[in-house]
């Protein structure tokens, strides 16, 4: 790309947790500054599993509408809530899609399953009902940072979420639902096809020749896997925000 002209044929799409921020933490000043420089080079999109309020908090925005204006595209809840240049362009609804009966069966099963788990800690908000997905959390989303870290270590050793996902698939084989390990402590539940590839339909309208995706949960079963492996994207597996900046430097800032 010659000079300082922005390359509008290329776009970078980022997962949030573990890619731009530490899980559920606010973006650090170094990353904010780095993204500002990147946005001068290419269009930038965010796609997170969390709702818009949580993404705004993590991005250091004072209000939800501000964060949507800070990026060319912003996709909350895997892209089921979609913004382009600060304007909402898409909104799906899980309840309308799957119905109360189906969702309540899943919730009841999940609550019973979690009631039989013994973990280092259990707190509150074990099921969070979002507009486009269920978020199931064995430790409870109201856990402290220390309790979160204890669960992460325990989960790595005992495969709590992996076994939980296997059990969900076994018990709901015909529900046409996807059960994906999300973030550090939870499982996302959404209709088949409502993974992060959902956001690509909006990006494709921009006519980009190259779509780079950066995420940390890119292995099968992780909530970045489908978009990472999609033939429409060039997938980049990262291990931390620092690794994200390192890989982007190699791609866009090497003279």
UniProtKB/TrEMBL annotation:
What is the protein name for this chain? Phosphomannomutase
The record's section on InterPro entries has: HAD-like_sf (IPR036412), HAD-SF_hydro_IIB (IPR006379), HAD_sf (IPR023214), PMM (IPR005002), PMM_cap (IPR043169)
Pathway(s): Nucleotide-sugar biosynthesis; GDP-alpha-D-mannose biosynthesis; alpha-D-mannose 1-phosphate from D-fructose 6-phosphate: step 2/2
Might you give the EC number(s) for this enzyme? 5.4.2.8
Q: Which CDD domains match?
A: HAD_PMM
Coiled coil residues, start to end:
none
For the ligand (Mg(2+) 2), the binding residues are 230
Q: Which residues bind Mg(2+) 1?
A: 15, 17, 216, 228, 233
EC category name? isomerase
Query: Which superkingdom, per the lineage?
Result: Eukaryota
* Active site positions: 15, 17
UniProt-annotated binding residues for alpha-D-mannose 1-phosphate:
24, 130, 141, 148, 186, 188
For whether the record's keyword set contains Oxidoreductase, the answer is: no
Q: Which PANTHER family match?
A: PHOSPHOMANNOMUTASE
Which GO CC annotations does the UniProt entry carry? Answer: cytosol
Report the catalytic activity. Answer: alpha-D-mannose 1-phosphate = D-mannose 6-phosphate
Q: Which organism is it from?
A: Mytilus coruscus (Sea mussel)
Q: What does this protein do?
A: Involved in the synthesis of the GDP-mannose and dolichol-phosphate-mannose required for a number of critical mannosyl transfer reactions.
Query: Which Pfam families does this entry report, sorted A to Z?
Result: PMM
Report the Gene3D superfamilies cross-referenced here. 3.30.1240.20, HAD superfamily/HAD-like
Which Gene Ontology molecular-function terms are recorded? metal ion binding; phosphomannomutase activity
State any GO BP term from the record. protein N-linked glycosylation
Question: Which protein family is named in the record?
Answer: Belongs to the eukaryotic PMM family.
**Cofactor(s) annotated in UniProt:** Mg(2+)
Quaternary structure annotation from Swiss-Prot or TrEMBL = Homodimer.
């Amino acid at each position: 790309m010659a000079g300082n002209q922005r390359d509008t044929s290329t776009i970078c799409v980022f997962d949030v947790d573990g890619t731009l921020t530490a899980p559920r933490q606010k973006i650090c000043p170094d990353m904010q500054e780095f993204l500002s420089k990147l946005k001068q080079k290419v269009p930038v999109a965010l796609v997170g599993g969390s709702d818009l309020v949580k993404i705004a908090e993590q991005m250091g925005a004072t209000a939800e509408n501000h964060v949507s204006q800070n990026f060319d595209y912003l996709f909350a809840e895997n892209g089921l809530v979609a913004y382009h240049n600060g304007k909402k362009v898409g909104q799906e609804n899980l309840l309308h899609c799957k119905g109360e009966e189906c969702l309540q069966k899943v919730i009841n099963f999940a609550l019973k399953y979690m009631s039989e788990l013994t973990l280092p800690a259990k707190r509150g908000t074990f099921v969070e009902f979002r507009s486009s997905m269920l978020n199931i959390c064995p430790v409870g989303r109201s856990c402290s940072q220390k309790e979160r870290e204890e669960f992460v270590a325990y989960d790595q050793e005992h495969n709590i979420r992996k076994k939980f996902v296997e059990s969900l698939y076994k018990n709901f084989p015909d529900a046409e639902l996807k059960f994906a390990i999300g973030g550090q402590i939870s499982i996302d539940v959404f209709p088949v096809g409502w993974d992060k590839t959902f956001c690509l339909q909006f990006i494709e309208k921009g006519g980009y020749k190259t779509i780079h995706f950066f995420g940390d949960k890119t292995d099968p079963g992780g909530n970045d896997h489908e978009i990472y492996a999609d033939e429409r994207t060039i997938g980049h597996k990262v291990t931390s925000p620092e690794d994200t900046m390192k890989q982007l430097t190699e791609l866009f800032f090497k003279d």
